[in-house]
Design brief:
371 residues, alpha/beta
Length: 371
């Protein structure tokens, strides 16, 4: 049953820092744009002063036109909730407040609420923004929220500040953010790039300019293919919009050998029929060049993941939100209930792929043993 058929109003809440609130408020805007219905966003007074003027001047239509439209999100001070929101209405309440940031206060506001950070069957990756979108889609039944994101307005802005990055991203301005590895970045908008390192005390201008050149020429993804391009010890995260699947992909550099193998394996066996991203030959070549990982242990791990997913389908679970699905949902449609048979077939196909690789691995062992 869809959100519109069961709820009279939607309320989002976040009392966290500016980075968290920027991402949460953007999700609320996307939800209102997609459903065409107004919603509330409960937060603290300081965030009202920061975001409310911007929200009313930078909201775009879902058709990605540059014309401003009135914001459908009504921001409410946490202290004024009783006067501005009708408690008696059937409400979908989504709370993005982190524990320790006022969660106890928000938990007591409504009779029932979903809390993003206390959802134990949900894992958290590099982008809380894309995961917040996925979480809202899961509990509301409203799909393709990311499709409402317009194309970025300008070339990226270089910044050291996570808060500034979050604020610029909220204003639809992508960022190249320099972030220490032990800190949490603020960037979340597609086409934003995060450079993570242990120190930025001595910056080489030519390295920064090189990244800008790759970015401006639309070649930023080449940095994730050619590992020798950057000589400095930096980790890169790039948020890429996948409009075909209405999702945000996270490209990482460097990628571990195990991650690279699993990515190609799942693309080959779970990829959409008719347009596979990788062939079996690509996966075999990748596997043959891997003397740095335990291929058997990796494949047995993947077997357990796939078996758990199939078990959920056998039990006919309505929502596929368990942690093991995080490995699959990037490669196959785990949301459309009419495609469950197709999903089940793909999982069986991937399990056959695991067995195939294990047999090849065993045969190679015997051949090596004979010599």
């Amino acid at each position: 049953m869809s959100w519109s058929a069961t709820r009279s109003q939607t309320v989002f809440m976040d009392l966290g820092g500016r980075v968290s609130v920027a991402a949460s408020l953007k999700v609320a805007e996307l939800f209102s744009q997609t459903t065409g219905a107004a919603c509330f966003f409960v937060t603290s007074e300081e965030h009202l002063l920061t975001f409310q003027p911007i929200a009313h001047s930078t909201v775009y239509s879902a058709s990605h036109s540059a014309a401003h439209i009135p914001s459908l999100v009504q921001m409410v001070n946490i202290d004024d909730v009783e006067h501005e929101i009708d408690y008696l209405k059937s409400s979908l309440v989504v709370d993005f407040t982190e524990p320790g940031k006022g969660l106890l206060k928000t938990a007591l506001l409504f009779q029932e609420s979903y809390n993003f950070h206390l959802q134990q069957d949900f894992s958290f990756a590099q982008s809380s923004f894309s995961e917040k979108i996925e979480y809202v889609e899961m509990i509301s039944g409203v799909k393709n929220l990311a499709r409402g994101l317009p194309d970025p307005l300008t070339t990226p802005v270089l910044t050291y500040s996570a808060e500034m990055a979050a604020l610029l991203n909220f204003k639809n301005i992508p960022t190249i953010e320099l972030c220490y590895r032990f800190k949490k970045p603020g960037s979340f908008l597609p086409q934003s790039l995060i450079i993570m390192g242990d120190t930025f005390g001595l910056l080489r201008k030519d390295e920064i300019q090189l990244i800008f050149e790759f970015y401006k020429n639309g070649k930023i993804e080449d940095l994730f293919v050619n590992h020798s391009v950057l000589e400095v010890d930096w980790d890169l995260l790039y948020f890429k919009m996948d409009r075909q699947n209405s999702s945000i992909k996270i490209l990482k550099h460097p990628v571990s050998a195990t991650e690279a193998f699993l990515d190609q394996f799942l693309k080959a066996f779970l990829g959409h029929s008719g347009r596979p991203a990788y062939s079996l030959e690509d996966v075999f070549v990748k596997a043959q060049n891997m003397d740095t990982i335990d291929l058997e242990a990796t494949l047995e791990f993947m077997r357990k993941i796939l078996q758990r997913c199939l078990l959920d389908l056998e039990k006919k679970k309505e929502v596929l939100n368990q942690p093991h699905w995080n490995w699959v949902r990037a490669y196959a449609d785990c949301y459309t209930k009419t495609k469950r048979a197709e999903l089940k077939k793909s999982l069986h196909q991937a399990l056959l792929g695991v067995d195939l690789f294990l047999r090849v691995q065993e045969r190679q062992k015997r051949v090596v043993g004979m010599h």
